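Sequence only, no structure available. Ideas?
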Amino acid sequence: MDDQQLVDLINELVKQPHESEWVEFKLNFHSPEEIGERISALSNGACIHNQPFGYLIFGVEDKSHLIKGTTFKVKSHKKGTEELEHWLATRLNPRIDFGVYEFDYDDARHISLFVIPAAKVQPVEFLHYSYVRVGSITRKLNEFPEKQAKIWKKETVPFEKEIAKDNLTASDITKFLSTETYFDLIKLPYPSTQQGVIDKFVEEGLVVRNKGYAITKLGALLFAKQLKDFESVERKSVRVIVYKGKNKVETEREQIGARGYAIGFEGLVVWINSQLPANEEIGKALRTESRMYPEIAIRELVANALIHQDLTEKGFPMVEIFTDRIEISNPGTPLVTPERFIDAYLSRNEKLADIMRRMGFCEEKGSGLDKVIFYNELYQLPPINVIVAENRTRVTIYSYKSLNDLDKREKVRACYQHACLKYVSNEKMTNQSLRERFKIDDHNYSIASRIIKDALMEGMIKEDDPESKSRKYASYTPFWA
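Reply:
I predicted one. Tokens follow.
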């Protein structure tokens, strides 16, 4: 929202006859803990009263609703050494994607505003307790079981089907969304009438008929000409950060996606690849450059980060480029364990995934990560690594290291991923195939044997035929096969 939209919102909220379970006014800051409790209470109250958001406004007198301004500035306030906004976000469960806005109502009055999405599926807790407002008092939600039950029983609308912008005309749809991009990517002729365009977007769930027309969050996320036109999905923009070294001390450059995923995906992947180091190869006649990382693998991992993110979680997909690795992460924990990424498939955003596949941005179900591992091995790179922490899933792909420079865990992980790749290709891993993966000379077969033995000890692989006495012709499968 721009400043004028924020001023208009405040003007509407102060017209409320009194504070409610989803609107609270305050003049100045009291304590971080009080704000956390209010966020929980207003989110739960908004859910109970069928409001999309709750609002906590600093700078308005609670009794008179007079706009007096505040000295409290959320963005710069800290709890200890931690930024207040981050401190609050990490102590909420689930981590709702609340927005914080600071703006001048006029030359003399400053406002700080929290825009808090309504609870979904379960009550929002702060420091392990959920709250609710009763009149103007904040109380623990478990003291009011009938209110608690309303939240648990509430049927939730999937994020993709929620409304991003409503009360629109047919011409507004083509104003805000790049309808041409959809038809180009799906490889369908563009309809001869505006109504034909709208009908197709309604069929896809990108637009709904609702007091005229409304754009769903799915439609905005994929085809927004400018994501800033849609406050509820703007914060899901992809961010790419290039660092100067192996850590985050110094940032070289940063790019934030401004358009919907479908419009900006190809440009995003091209820009990422342009930032990656390349190796020079001098042939007999031409000097050529080959990328240090396989572009196909980068493309798949970026697409997966967009598709498998938890859209209800606070945060955004991010690509971080270091001199020795690339980290691609998204908000949310995966629905399958990282060890089963290569063979199992479960997406929380089926419609988003379906459209992105049909537009050619990623592979069919379950055939993306095997391609990543295949090209990772082809480029002789260390194994990819998947870390799930702090409600984020991070996949790391590393630059080249020799076998001698890999530690034991990396060798075992590479062995396991190789066994997975062989298995999904209807083959079995052997000592020979592992030697080929690591480019180990045949006479050094004992090096591969040692890695296989360590992977067996770790329980990452198993013998395909435990009864066989032959070590020379032994084959192996992933532990889950």
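The longest strand covers residues 110-117.
Hope that gets you unstuck.
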